[in-house]
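testing teh design pipeline on a random one, pls ignore if ur not involved
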């Protein structure tokens, strides 16, 4: 008897072979590997959606206010972040 809590995903034979090979190399079952892959993909999609939502909100704020940040300010901030990252890397 099948488990009603399980979803069925149809995959072609080529993908099935690829997944089996990857699962074998990683010591996972095909089901475990598939769950890991789907979980990772869902995580990445949620991040992309959140970033898009934030970008859209920022664009709408710009359209409403016309406020911008000067290029020189952005460049200085990025240069500061780069210098901080280089310092941390050299300290390691």
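output:
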């Amino acid at each position: 008897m099948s488990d009603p809590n399980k979803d069925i995903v149809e995959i072609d034979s080529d993908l099935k072979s690829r997944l089996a090979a990857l699962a074998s190399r990683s010591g996972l079952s095909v089901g475990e590997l598939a769950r890991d892959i789907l979980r990772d993909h869902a995580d990445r999609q949620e991040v992309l959606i959140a970033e898009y939502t934030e970008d859209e909100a920022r664009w709408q704020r710009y359209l409403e206010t016309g406020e911008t940040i000067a290029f020189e300010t952005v460049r200085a901030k990025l240069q500061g972040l780069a210098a901080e990252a280089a310092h941390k890397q050299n300290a390691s």
